[in-house]
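INFO  loader      accepted 1 record
INFO  loader      residues=77
INFO  predictor   begin
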Amino acid sequence: MAVMAGALGLNIFCVVRNVIGHPDIRFSKEERASGYQENFKEGKKYKYHALREFVSKRKPQVMPGIDAALAGLRKDK
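INFO  predictor   done
INFO  writer      dumping tokens
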């Protein structure tokens, strides 16, 4: 039951994020009538969000402590 609730919560979060923050979704009639918009700055802001920026600055390790410990053991041998 908890797994289903977690999956549902993640799904709702993704849908709400895409509906509210996506630069191509427009609700007002004037914005929809304008057709194609060149909003490249807004698109980059949406694509390179804070979580992606945080993750890109880190090493791709799942468990850094265990990796460091195992790397230390290999160097001794």
